[in-house]
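seq/struct pair 1
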Amino acid sequence: MAPALDVLPHRHVLTLPNEPSAVRLARETAERALVEWGIGLHRSVVDAALLILSELVTNSVRHAAECSPQIVVTYAASGSRLAFAVHDRHPHQPPLHQAMTGTGGGLGTVMELTRQLGGTAAVQGDADGKNIWITLPL
């Protein structure tokens, strides 16, 4: 299930072409948003969050570009939580439990980091594809 965004006062949505440059742009936008929201980039969770975000965007570029010419990255935060989602139009919803067993490649890295940080991950399908949500404590 997606995080309750209505309780996270800071939000930003970015639409990008689904191509390799999206990884860098998604990261740079996350950094700018965090600074704007008063969340210091020096926090250890921020480095991990940026790596997780990069992996999710990379997965969309590698596996969904053919059927999803754009991806949408949603960023949200409060004083105690950071959440972000990557949406693409590919209908496949990767089973997150398989990623936890080490058979998920880059998604395995995402899941392991999320778990280590005490966060949550969810895949949310919709009529237009899917979102993969990550929520991390700050």
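seq/struct pair 2
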Amino acid sequence: MSAYTHEEVEAKLLDMLEEVCDSDEVRTHRDEDLFELGLLDSMAAVELLVDIEDTFGVSIAPTEVEREEMNTVNLIIHQVEIRL
């Protein structure tokens, strides 16, 4: 059982993504490709993975998941939750 509720994971990741992407658009474009929107690039994605590990204790190696599995806000939330 996770120490975090879905709402807590969602809130923390939205805050993280808003900071990493430097845009609050992540809150309204939750099923759109963040790379295609220009909100996330490979450097920001690595920063996000480090933040996820620091915050949730969940390690997601960049080689472990395809970009298509973590390119939207909702997919990122899902990838974190299945590892908690």
